[in-house]
Design brief:
Length: 262
């Protein structure tokens, strides 16, 4: 049976196995970025699936090699997009817990494979948006999953929002150096105005050419994405793993990384 299209086809609903519903984000032009239509469709579909025992598991995934680039913030100001997205969740009428991870690393990830792609495309030099001083708190995908499992099992997390990150802060420039080390490459790191990179990325999107960074992601990279360093140890009872020396998987293609990890 063909999937049921929701949100104008940007969200697909099917049932791949008994008692399993699958919602697939299909917005390839935006690297499966979320928008109001997709979020509204999710808000309608999830309560509808939570009826009786016909569905006991709901899987949310993304089409292609990318789960989701995040929220499509093209029409929202940098200062308010996070607040508006959270407001949609808070006002949904459902029990909710918001997990806000910083950049995630791990086999098949989006961001660090994007940086690795830039390194491969840029012989001799690799650009960093702006001056490369924006700060991030990279966290392993497995640690985010562990937090999600513990949050689901702990009813005291309902109605709370948690900023998740690893054990230290990194600038974009430091992240680029770590990716270069993992790939065994030597490149000159060159600051580049965000507007210039956006022009190249925007032109690539218009003609549907592959480019490692989407325009919406460039806007996000100008902002710090960090939280308290002690949230996971104090609230969820374990120490998140460090990123240093853990990016060796980037030497393989993203699809091969996932296969190797399994």
């Amino acid at each position: 049976m063909s999937p049921e299209p929701l949100a104008g086809g940007k969200l697909l609903l099917d049932h791949p196995a008994e008692a399993v519903a699958r919602l697939t984000i299909s917005n390839p032009e935006k690297r499966n970025a979320l928008d109001h239509d997709i979020l509204d469709a999710l808000a309608e579909a999830l309560p509808a699936l939570d009826r009786g025992i016909d569905v006991r598991c709901v899987l949310i995934t993304g089409s292609g090699e990318v789960f989701s680039a995040g929220y499509d913030i093209g029409g929202i100001s940098d200062e308010t997009f996070s607040e508006e997205a959270e407001a949609l969740v808070r006002d949904s009428g459902l029990d909710w817990t918001i997990l806000k991870p910083s950049l995630q690393f791990g086999e098949g990830d989006g961001f660090f494979n994007i940086v690795a792609g830039l390194v491969r495309l840029s012989p001799g030099v690799v650009p960093v948006p702006g001056d490369g001083s924006s700060r991030f708190q990279p966290i392993h995908t497995g640690d985010v999953a562990a937090v999600a499992v513990r949050a689901l099992a702990d009813p005291t997390t309902v109605g709370e929002a948690f900023e998740l990150g690893g054990p230290r802060y990194w600038t974009y420039r430091e992240i680029t150096r770590e990716v270069l080390t993992a790939l065994g490459k030597r490149r000159l790191i060159v600051p580049m105005p965000v507007v210039l990179i956006r022009l190249v990325a925007g032109a690539a999107e218009l003609v549907h050419l592959a480019f490692p960074v989407a325009t919406d992601q460039l806007r996000q990279l100008r902002l710090d994405n960090i939280g308290p360093l002690d949230v996971i140890p104090t609230r969820f009872g374990f120490q998140p793993r460090p990123m240093e020396g853990a990016l060796g998987y980037l030497r393989a293609k993203p699809r091969d990384q996932v296969v190797a990890a399994t």
